[in-house]
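dumping this here before i forget
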Amino acid sequence: MRSTTYFVTALALGLCVGMASESQAADASNRGNRPHPSFEQLDKNGDGRLVAAEVPDRAWQRLSRADTNKDNAVSKAEFDAAKAKRGESNRGERRPSFEQLDKNGDGKIIAAEVPARAWQHLSRADTNKDNAISKAEFEAALASRPARGRS
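structure:
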């Protein structure tokens, strides 16, 4: 009787641990597909300003960079400006537009216009190998990529 009780207890414990691990793995894999929260979602007290107490510490480390007037709060305007600078739309997308990447407005993106890491990815779109990405090449590359967790 005692060995049966131990066996059932061990089995139940093993199932619980396995289910928890699967749940944590699913949560971790879904995190990368979630859009960033909106300003309104982050503004817990609805005062139109984000302060450190309203967001997790790690989020504040990033958000505080948007505080351009250094008043220890991020206004909606500062938040939107930071999103635009990063190339995000209001829907939380993280891909900058062709126009945002084409810094000099000449109709092509070259390595000098983007960070080196971005160029590593963008250069794959250079199908004619002229060391520049045209708008057509950029759009073709985007069209060939699968959507990232958005419907």
